[in-house]
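Weekly structure sync, notes
Attendees: PL, DS, HV (note-taker this week)

Item 1: Aminopeptidase
DS walked through the input record. Source organism listed as Aegilops tauschii subsp. strangulata. Sequence as pasted into the shared doc:
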Amino acid sequence: EPAFKAKFKLTLEVPSELVALSNMPVGNATFAGPIKTVRYLESPPMSTYLVAIVVGLFEYVEGMTTKGTRVRVYTQIGKSNQGKFALDVGVKSLNLYKDYFDTPFPLPKLDMVAIPDFAAGAMENYGLVTYREVALLFDDKSSSASSRQSVAITVAHELAHQWFGNLVTMEWWTHLWLNEGFATWVSHLAVDSFFPQWNIWTQFLDSTTTALRLDSLEASHPIEVEIHHASEVDQIFDAISYDKGASVIRMLQSYLGAERFQKAMASYMKKYAFSNAKTEDLWAVLEKETGEPVKDLMTTWTKQKGYPVINAKIKGDDIEIEQAQFLLDGSSGSGMWIVPITSGCGAYDTQKKFLLKLKRDKMVIGSQCGDRKKGGNFWTKLNINGTGFYRVKYDDELAAALQNALETKKLSLMDKIGTVDDLYALSIARQQTFASLLRLLYGYRGEADYSVLSHINTVTTSIAKISADATPALAGDIKQLLIKILLSPAEKLGWDPKKGESHLDVMLRPLLLTALVQLGHGKTINEGVRRFNIFTRDRGTSLLPPDTRKAAYLAVMQNVSSSNRSGYDALRKIYKESAEGEERLQVLGILSSCRDKGIVLESLNLIFTSEVRNQDAYILLRGIQPEAREISWNWLKENWELISKTFAGSLITDFVETIVPLFTSNEKAAEISKFFATRTKPGFERTLKQSLENVRISARWAEGIRSEPGLAQTVRELLAKP
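Item 1 (cont.): predicted structure, written out as tokens:
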């Protein structure tokens, strides 16, 4: 009951040698032999779900904010050194949020604790934030660059909750998205301010595209879901509450302007401090401060599921635009939105903004977008930098001009991402051809930016998977084409880190090497295996630093089988012996990445042993390859009783959402649906619906690809290009 706030005054009796923490600092402690009694200071008013007690053997590192708040990171004995990075981000976050919300951190201290067994990633308890070890600890020697980044984001997210969630709390779980969407958005704001070289807002588009993907399903749900009982809330801790929530906040902030938005947030914080608020209260404050129709605009985004695709057609000096709800299954929904449209043309300094309130409207572009004659520099792009939560479908002339702008390096990084992501989604929905998607992708060869290539990689993975099912005869050529797109940036970076290279290049190297291994690029696989063999003899070798290990591990798994299992056994040994949480999870994530039935089953069965924590099972499941889907599905059916007994709440959804969407046929969807007809639980009902819908969408996409004329010719033409 988040609205029932109270002041808490706690007393604990614990073994004398243990550290005992709670939300507030210790008032006093008395000792009686082996037991100590610890009394904590009284807390300000807070919701019950934020009360926390942590007792254990810990050591800590400590810092101080500019206003004198003590910040500590507690770890298991011997690991406190790995808490320094999170401590630094924590202190900086408290300083930044105090200014952003114009409200001081309300408690005298903040503790962050790394906990070995913890089902959630992290939890924002007031003044005593708990984390999985891998979400809080960072070691310069043994951690990867991507883990440095995710620790920073997680810490900034949980500390944002100290204001948005803890000081001002949602009135009821229906408004969960306010907590999670806002903390997700503002954590990027914070990390961007601490590490501008990470380009974190460009990476944020990962969250937006994840949400766009889920929200284009019939089985999606609105940002605000009526929650009737607290037990239902588990199901909405998903990409809609977090990622769509954060994306529509980014859209609103971009529409209102950063300064007006921040001032309004500070007023909201002051008005509702130590009490509760609902979504409408936030809109009311923003509307009063800015004079903009925030409530009408935002209600269309929070109260209905889905989002529009904006169809853009050029007529004379106008661009006619029309909105329609976008669904991946190709059907049309009846949703209508108030859409903040942004457009740029010919250059980024001629941007226009307007609110599309109707189904159709038009924008006058005149001649400022460049010369429309063939070979002119004409182009126009809607949804500049992806700040809007919608997709755009261009007519042929506009699409060709945009592809030309891409190939002549006119587009920003964010617009390169939006352009490919929109066409990818439109291709799945069969509103654009598969060939046009391949042609556009080909325009990205030679791209060198991490965020852009991370999206290209998502698309190429999906294309490799669908083409194996849709056009097996062409699948090999399509893989060669995808390798051709990714190879040159991968060769530039090589396997070895370079002195002084950027954080983003350090993250790009494993991304590309892993992608090439998965596409079956022989040279990369052989090099990965070679380096791995040296690594097994000498763990300290500089040939396989933490960042590139995953690619080498995957390369090894490409050749593993029941009769040739030395590589697999070597990986299992690393998993058992490594003291590094991150490295263990790296290995766990690829043990099932194999085509051999025996090895896949052996790996999946580890889930039922003490070797794998329940909270980590999903990592092992994520490694399953499409080639092993039948084996995995049969395994799931045979072990379902045991799985439902062993895994609670959100942990059980992982089994459904990793295995079911590997299939691409309607027959399989029917079989899976029948199996679960008598076995669903409210906890994963929605996930199952979404997963089955994804199977049917893939089946429809595959059918479209099969019947597409001229596809083979397009693939051959692109392969033959220099």
